[in-house]
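Chapter review: from sequence to fold.
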Amino acid sequence: MLTRRNFLAVTAAGTAALLVGCSGEKSEGPAATPATKPVEDAPAADAAPAGATLVAYFSATGNTEGVAAAIAERLGADVFAIEAAQPYTEADLNYNDDASRVSVEHADGASPELAQVTPDGWTDYDTVLLGYPIWWGEAAWPLRTFVAGNDFGEKTVMPFCTSGSSGIGGSAERLAELAGTGNWLEGERFSAGAGDDAAAWVAGLGL
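The token string follows.
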């Protein structure tokens, strides 16, 4: 688990990100770009105060990570990076290859194993902003594992996504169905590098 301070220190080093755009069309699957290194390990955060806000996100190429950083900074929120147990490589993200990892997982409806499913102090968070790239019109596959593996209880969940052109579509509704709990609100879509737009959006949420 990263606090906002530790997270911003990591993201300030720069995330060379290209668009992970997609839509229902296969030609707009996850961008075949080099995967960035996972967020570095940081000391465990202190227990979150009751009613705290968490920004949880998965990012394959850095686009969603950048938006998540802007949101966390604006809210003063803690951050949790959703990471696949086996990180995605450049070859894994080649949606033009039917044998690539993302293509096979798409066809199989896979829920990839995560390095950590439940964030530290999960029960203390009342509000969760949940970020992900759009792949083939859906939330990136690791989100399936994350939402199915956690009890959202009475938490308020605000989804946000990044894509090259597609909107958020029904991706958040499908995640809510997998979760089965939580108060899921309407989400928002951002393009790569839209940190200022994301900060402005979250400022108007009244969180």
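Two observations follow directly from the output. Helices lie at 4-11, 63-75, 101-108, 142-148, 171-179, 195-203. The chain has a mean pLDDT of 83.
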